[in-house]
Structure formats: structure tokens, C-alpha cells
Amino acid sequence: MTAMRWDLADEPRPQQTLFDEPVFERQPGLGEYRGIEFLHVRAQRVINEVKGAPFGFRYTINPYRGCTHACTYCFARPTHTYLDLDADRDFERRIVVKVNAVSHLRSELDPRRWRGDLIAMGTNTDPYQRAEGKYRLTRGIVEVLSEFANPFSILTKSTLVLRDLPLLAEAARRTSVRVNLSIGTLDEEVWRATEPGTPHPLRRVRAVEQLNAAGVPCGVLVAPVLPGLSDGPDQLEAVVEACVAAGARSISTVLLHLRPGVRDVFLPRLAASHPHLVADYRRRYRDRAYAPRADQQALDALVRDLVRRHGGLAADRDDPEHMTGRSPAASEAAAHEPGALSVVAVRGARQPAGPVPAPDDAAADQLSLL
């Protein structure tokens, strides 16, 4: 029995509530999962409250910790250190699996205790990463949320989401469902260097088209955009044009940010693949996690112009409707009625909505989703 230091899944301040969660089984990956170790735990809580999230949701579910997508820039890497694992290779190869997530969720959705708030998935690590092909926890979670007609959103880089297309389409007929695909670039060299464990970006573009065609509203985050790697006007136009053509409901963008702990993984890998860029990155992110505001604004303006030029709908990354499918008016109405079920209109659907708290900088940093 191995004790593991365990942080609440989306809590931005790790010094707050922590508890010990035992790893009761370690399972080495076989076949297509060779090289991965799965750490089985029984979570004491599956739905996590994130106070102050400015994205139109307050509750999240993350059935896995760590991620085999191995994105060099992943903001969630430091959360592995809360578990006494490292943010580098352990994050990619030692995946914590909450094996009781589905059964525990069913009890947590008991209407005597739960008011039907929207639940976001993919806010920490990808719910459709490779482990999902083995454990099918995300599928089980979607089944339960659909059964309870509980609204939810999913952010993913994985085309494995298409495995659950019929289930998601049925859920979308019962409640508010929103999926967003993260597609930062179509540049194959950049993709291979920075997102080595993810599906090809063109496959993700096709997934956007298939989801929308099936009645599952799907948008795109062109994110993160990497300075000197994927921020060229032609590169950005290529991904925007493809996503608009695929029917993306809305498109937003975010420039890379490097939190402490992520920088220590990202910069050495950048030095191995693009050594000529390291000095520029050290300058840009020398004493900050975020790029200069002027750079962020220039990128946002460029992408907005490209989206509009190609006939799409541009969005802010913290727009509730873009992230969750719920309109700002619906989120505002819910915020004024804490403790009660309200019924709001979202693209013609009716579903329960819950309270949405005021923005908080720490939560915004943790839930930047990139």
C-alpha cells in the first residue's frame, strides 16, 4: 500500500486542502500501452469545485492525472509534483487512474445533494488521452451525466472522442453539451516537436466536422500559439481556415504561457528541437509566466480578423458560451440564483444551471486550459 500526496484536482493553491489517497495497485502497460505505468486509486471525491473560475463553470471532473499526450508546454505538469512524482517523464508515463470515478459520480449526482450545475472535463489533463482507451472512464462519466441530464463540456486534443459520438449526440439531445478541440497548429514539424502523443491536427479538424454534423456543438481553441514556432500569419490562417471550413461553432486563441515547473520541462526540449529560439523564450518569459500583454493582444487581434475573414465566429477564451455552450446571459442569471435550479435557454435547449462565481486570478491561471 503506497500513500500518495493528493491535491484536489483543480485547486490552484496546492497548500490548501490536501489529503492522502492510497495507490492500491500499480499496473504496467502492455501492448500498445507498453512504457506506461497506471497507478490505481479510489478517489474520495470525483466532482471538484473550482471557486472563481471565469469560464462559465464552477465544477470539474478529471478521471486521470498525468497525460500521455506529452505536450511539452502542458500547464498541468506541476500538479504531478503534488503526488511526489516529477513533472517531466513521470507526468507522461505514470498515469493516475481514479478507477471508481463512474460509480462515485452516480452517488454524487444524487438530487438530494446536487443541483445540476454544469460540469467541465479536460480542465487539467485530457479525458480522452490513451488511458481512456483502456479504462473507458470518460465514457462512463458521459453516460451517467446524460442519464441525469446534467450539462457538461469537454476540452480535448484527442480524436478518441469520436468513439463516443453516438453517446454524446444522445446527451446533446437531453441536456447542454459542448466540446472544444484544441488545435494549435497544422504545422507537422511543430506538432511532432511539442505534442508528440496527440493525434495529427488534421484528424482533429475532421473530428470537429464530425461532432457538429452529429449534433454535438464543437468549437476550437487555436492554442497554445508558440512564439517563433506556430505564430506565423500563414500558419495561423491555415488552422483558422481549416477549422471554419469544418464548421467550428466558435474559435478562440491563447498565446503560450510558461508557469514555474513547466518552464523547466519546456525549455530543455525546445533547446533539443529549436536551439536558436531558446534565448528569445528566456527573454520573453524571464520573470513572468505570461508573454507581454502587447504580444497577447496582437495575436488575439490577428486571429479574430482571420476568423471573421473566413466566415467564422471569433470568441474570447473566457467566453462562457464558447467554453461551455451557455450564453453569458445564462451564466449571469445562474449567478444571481445560488441554491436553486433555474432553467435557461441555450441554443434552443432547456437545462438546469447553477451558480457561477466572480473571476479569480489564481483560478484563471490554473484553468487556462492550455
**Sequence of secondary-structure elements:** EEEEEEHEHEHHEHEHHEHEHHHHHEEH
Strand order of the largest sheet: 4-5-8-9-10-11-12
CATH topology: TIM Barrel
Estimate nothing, just give the exact number of structural domains. Answer: 1
Name the CATH architecture: Alpha-Beta Barrel
Can you tell me the residue ranges where pLDDT is under 50 for at least 5 consecutive residues?
1-20, 331-370
Write a structural description.
The protein is of the alpha/beta class and 370 residues long. The protein has a single domain (2-366), classed as Aldolase class I (TIM Barrel, Alpha-Beta Barrel). The protein is 34% helix and 19% strand. Helix 4 runs parallel beside helix 5 and helix 8 (233-245) crosses helix 11 (293-309). It is globular and about 55 Å long. The two termini are 34 Å apart. The model is unreliable at 1-20 and 331-370 (pLDDT under 50).
